[in-house]
Amino acid sequence: MTESPSSDLSQQPRSQRVDPAGLVIAFALAALAAVLVWDASRLPSTSMYGMGPEAMPLVVATGLGILAIANLIDALRGNLPPRESTDPKPVLLILGGLALLIAIIGLGGGFILATSILFVATSAAFGRRAILTDLIIALVMSTLIYLAFDRLLTLSLPAGPLERLL
Amino acid sequence: METFAALAHGMAVAVQPMNLLYALTGVFLGTAVGVLPGIGPALTVALLLPVTYKLDPGGSLIMFAGIYYGGMYGGSTTAILINTPGESASMATALEGNKMAKAGRGGPALATSAIGSFVAGTIATIGLAFLAPWLVDFAVRFGPEDYFALMCVAFVTVSATFGDSPIRGLTSLFIGLTLGLIGIDKLTGQARLAFGIPELLDGVEVTTLAVGLFAVGEALYVASRRHHAEEQIEPVRGSLWMTTEDWRRSWKAWLRGTMFGFPIGALPAGGAEIPTFLSYSTEKRLTKHPEEFGKGAIEGVAGPEAANNASAAGTLVPLLTLGLPTSATAAMMLAGFQQYGLNPGPLLFAERPDLVWGLIASLFIANVMLLVLNLPLVGLWVRLLAIPQPWLYAGILVFATMGTIAAKPSVVELSMLAGFGVLGFLMRRFDFPIAPVVVGLILGPIAESQLRRALAISLGDPIVLLQSPMSATLLGIALIALLAPFVLKGLGRFKASED
């Protein structure tokens, strides 16, 4: 599976190419700092002794700003660790599964249906093509989880049409 | 001896039949989840947190102790049998352990790791029991400025000093600190970074963050590079038991590993990676069988495994006595305390001694249970490893979302989980460490409130941070620890030389 990042420290090449991903990271950190400053500026400054609620966000924003510059320098020097190619399809499939899960929970479709969809989507992302088999496995598993948590541990999981049949 | 009395009292709490059952359940579930590839102890604790929601605090913490130790043992099983350490602390174990498994000596490798964990865990827990009251006596004199300074030390050591890149570690930490700012400011009631979303007013849930970063992030990362390599499970062949020769070669390694693990874990120095690799290189140097290193030397499993367990017990020292989590797992344990409104620290020792000492005593019990449970059950754990990858990760994601659904079944909370998953994926892809984010989220607000308390007492004069000798010293240490990696760029070199 994953080789640990620090174990290939020795063969890390020092390429001199500017890494665009590094520029994006630096920009994102700077943007985050800007959001913090903007949010802190809306807070009414209090006349308390010591620090008001706006002080800490400004400290963190300063840190983020410095780190944005440091990451920018790293990126310009091409100091980012090497990375392997990735396949975006499975990532999008899993994220799609998560989005469906959120939608089903939000619309009151219940726990069993929502997690079953996520199960099938993830399993497909990892290369399974037997969608019907996976769906049956998922439904059985999430029903068992639902019963175990709802009945045994009396934790309330959201109920939808399927749960009401139990 | 005050400690003995307290410990005996704790034992009396821990051996109540119900609590024994909690410990057993914890050890079993912890191992079962921890053994799954890609799941480290921190995630094990995070995923199993919902199971403890309805228990009383005492029983729940005892179950945690079992989950914690079980999760670690499960992680080393995975490291030995499929060479995919769920966390950096098991990396050293994987080096020799997987070679042993490939050579058909998986049984003895698992045995030396289990018995070594038991020996180290027991010694380190005794260390914890004796060190804790002493540190508590010391910590009750801490003012808010001292706590703030202590947290600065933890921030720096966790993120910058021992990582591969201090800049990337600090970036992770500051992302965590930013997330920690979200929600209502406890002193003034002002909402920060909530953007008018009511769910954000309570702040970011630590479990949501940890499960998102570790579980969802890992699943996305593994899925994205599935085309690279397939892992291989080594079957456990031959005898499970260690030979006399194995015992002779293991026991000193266990003790040396413990000596590395406990003190380094107890210092707020972030994680078990350093002691496990120190132990590995020490064993490699001292061994009488240097020709076996790299081909499956049992000392190379025994030492790092002991160091790993001892350091895990060591991290409980700052956690219980100072409320200071120095690893992602410790941060999850702190979250477990906080769900009952309990704050670890000197006060908890005074107010709820039954709870604290019951927890410490149950660490001993969890350790014994691990030993008697896991060697016979090793066949079951191996079968868990054989779950096909699609179902494994699908199951992990179902459990990951279930925790959030059980705690807060809201669209916002689940979207945050997914968002943290994407963050975890990107951080893995670009090699940013994950643990500092979790530590930043949980320690950031505590550090802020200590600093503000200190400044309120001093009427806003920041010199108070330097007037207390304790705080001045700690801030000095934090500064040195921050600058050291930039000065000595080769701090991580010993790791690279072992590969």
TrEMBL record, chain A:
User: Where are the membrane-spanning stretches?
Assistant: 20-43, 55-73, 93-119, 131-149
- Domain DUF1468: from-to ranges: 24-158
Official protein name in the record:
Tripartite tricarboxylate transporter TctB family protein
Q: What are the entry keywords?
A: Membrane, Transmembrane, Transmembrane helix
Automatic annotation (TrEMBL), chain B:
- Which Pfam families did the record assign? TctA
Keywords assigned by UniProt, alphabetized = Membrane, Transmembrane, Transmembrane helix
Membrane-crossing residues?
20-49, 61-82, 109-135, 147-163, 169-187, 316-335, 355-379, 391-412, 432-451, 463-488
Q: Which domain of life is it from?
A: Bacteria
Is ATP-binding among the key words of this record? no
Q: Which residues form the DUF112 domain?
A: 20-438
Q: What's the protein name? A: Tripartite tricarboxylate transporter permease
